[in-house]
Amino acid sequence: MYLTAFNEKYLDELIYMAHQLVDRLRSMRADILRTIRLFCKRTIDIAVSFTGLVVSAPVFALAALTIKLDSEGPVIFSQERVGKGGRIFNIYKLRTMRQDAEKDGPRWATHQHDTRITRIGAFLRKSHIDELPQLFNILKGDMSLVGPRPERPCFVETFEREIPHYAKRHQVKPGLTGLAQLRYKYDATIEDVTRKLKYDLIYVKHMCLLLDLRIMARTAVMLLFLKGI
Question: Other CB atoms closer than 10 Å to residue 23's CB: what's the count?
C-alpha cells in the first residue's frame, strides 16, 4: 500500500513537471516566433524606407523648392509624437502650414477649410508627399511602415483619459500607414478616434507579416489614385 501511494505521488510529480515543461516550451516557441516576426518586420522597414528615401529624392527636392517659394518658414516640420511604450520622439514632415499655425496653442487639424494650410500644403497633404520625411523616422526605428498612426502627447493624454484601452495601441511601433487609415480618413472628433481605435487594436492583436503586406498593398493603390488615407 505504501509503495502504491509512493508511486502515485511520484507519478503526479512527473505529470506536473511534464506540464510545466510543455508550458515552458510553448512559451519559448511563442517568443521565438515573435522575435522572427519582429526581425522580418524591421528588415522590411529598413529596406523599404532606405529605398524610398533614395527614389523619392527628386520629389522631395521639388517639394522643398515649392514650399520655400510658397511661404516663409523651414521646409521640414518637426513635432513630438508618442511611440511604442509611450516613448516620445520627433516626427518629421514637409511643412504644409503657415509658420505661425499654432501661435494660440496646439490645435487639432481639421483638413477641411483649415486656413492655416498653405497653397502648396493642400496638395502635399492630399498626395501624402508631406509624409516622405517619415521614412527617416522608420529608418531610425522610431516608426514602422505599418502600425497605428502616432499622436501628439497633449492629445494622447486626453484620449487615454476619455477613451477606454487607448493606451494599448502603444504596444507596437506607430506606422506610416495602418489598418485604421484604410477604414477612416482624418480624425475630426473624439468619436472618430474611438472608431479608429477599434482597428488599431485589431492590428495590435493580429500583427503579422501577411497583414502588413496587405495593408501596404492597399495603401499603395489608394495613393496611386489619390483617394487619401
Answer: 10
Q: 184, 192 in Cβ contact below 8 A?
A: yes
Which of 95, 180, 97 minimizes the C-alpha distance to 129?
Answer: 95
Domain residue spans of the chain: 41-224
In this prediction, residue 228 carries a pLDDT of: 56
Name the grid cell of 8.
502515485
pLDDT per residue as tens digits for the range 63-85: 999 999 998 889 999 999 999 99
E strand map for 27-179: 76-82, 88-94, 144-146, 175-177
pLDDT, the chain, mean: 87
* Helix 57-70 and helix 119-127, axial crossing angle in degrees, nearest 10: 150
| Alpha-carbon dihedral 51, 52, 57, 62, rounded to 10 degrees | 160
